[in-house]
Amino acid sequence: DPKIIQKPKYLVAVTGSEKILICEQYLGHNAMYWYRQSAKKPLEFMFSYSYQKLMDNQTASSRFQPQSSKKNHLDLQITALKPDDSATYFCASSQWGGYTLYFGAGTRLSVL
Amino acid sequence: QQQVRQSPQSLTVWEGETAILNCSYEDSTFNYFPWYQQFPGEGPALLISISSVSDKKEDGRFTIFFNKREKKLSLHITDSQPGDSATYFCAASEDTGANTGKLTFGHGTILRVHP
Q1: Contacts of residue A103 in chain B, CB cutoff 8 Å?
Q2: Is residue B34 reached through a cis peptide bond, with omega within 30 degrees of 0 on the bond before it?
Q3: Which of A72, B67, B102, B107 is 20 to 30 A distant from B33 in Cα terms?
């Protein structure tokens, strides 16, 4: 059974709309992360959260907002979607300070 | 600015051969280098890692060779199996005493192992 659940697996959106990507982890970790993988760029770190607090933010745009309602949840809200936002978004988790990250299967977002 | 580079982009070997995947980096503050393996439709999974205090790390058929002076490392997969066919990512992070989970990834090498 997957220990990091990302929903949905595929998502199609129109330019200007808003979407929420869901991530839940059942590994008992206290840190969660979002990474993005686009066609032209390697996996890029976006955010890290520990104990539901933002620890690091490497996204330049405020259109990307992580939301943590529970300690094992870290959703990603993306507003005013653009075609350049098309990518696969990966959620990951670890113990805070640990070096081994565990990744989910990703949500592939296509913005038309 | 791409800080972690991988070569080749793709590699094909026959079953039983040794596959060599290369990685180089620019940032001297990087001191931890994990390799991740990714199969289609799945997320990356940690395969093996090395810290900058070592020059070699071995785990079964997988070995990392690390050259700190040249800022290069390589992943050797001996006795390659068709099940090793995947994309391999070299990544790097710096130990600032408070690891934030930020890894810098290369573009990956697609490995195909023919039976």
Answers
A1: 36, 43-45
A2: no
A3: A72
